Amino acid sequence: MIKDLFKRLNQNKNENKKIKVKLSYLEIYNETIIDLLSDTKKTLLLAENESKGVYTPDLEEFAINSVEEILFFIMKGNEKRTMAST
Hints:
This protein is an alpha+beta fold. Helix content is 26%, strand content 26%.
């Protein structure tokens, strides 16, 4: 899916459209929201806004330009995920 996304974005570059791809990665565990890409382990809050809907105000976003960057951030976030037996 990610490869197809960037393939289509590259095909449409000449149409004078500016498309930005951003990535964020959060975890909800035991009713706590954690930004998995932040250097600090901060707890996030949910907010609601008419234009944005439900969102997390302090969630970090990263501009992405390639499949490799997405995979890098996913691996980085996976290292911080909570793993517990259910």
